[in-house]
C-alpha cells in the first residue's frame, strides 16, 4: 500500500525510469567516427590536390613562395602536425558530445513511448532539408546548363 509517503525509503516513490545509455552511446561513437573519417578523407583529398597543383607549377589556390619567408614556412610545417592532431581530437570531442546528446534524446523518446513527438519534429525538419537540397541541386543545374556556356566550361 502506497500512501504517498516514502517511509524512509528514498526509492519507493520514484517513478522515473533510469535510461540505459549503452545503446545511444555506441550509436553516438559510431556516428562520430563516420563524421571524422569523412572529414579526414575530404582533407586528405584536398591536400593531395594541392600537392599535385604545386608539382605542376599551378599556384591558383596556393600563393607563391617568397624567399624571405622560408624560415616561416619550415616552422609552419613543423607546427602543422601538432595542430592537426589537436584539432582532430577537439573536433572528435565536440562531435561526440553533440551526437551523444542527440542519440540519448532520440533513444529516450523511443524507449519511453513518446514517438509521436519525434514524428512531429521529423515532419517539420525533413521537408525543409529536402527543399534546401532541391534548391541547391536546381541552382547547380541552372548554372551549368542555362547561365554558363558549353555546359559550364565557359563563363
UniProtKB/TrEMBL annotation:
Transmembrane feature ranges: 25-46, 70-89, 95-115
Species: Adineta steineri
Gene Ontology molecular functions: retinol transmembrane transporter activity; signaling receptor activity
Keyword Acetylation listed: no
Keywords of the record: Membrane, Transmembrane, Transmembrane helix
N-terminal signal peptide: none
InterPro entries: STRA6-like
Protein's recorded name: Uncharacterized protein
Upper taxonomic lineage: Eukaryota, Metazoa, Spiralia, Gnathifera, Rotifera
Pfam families: RBP_receptor
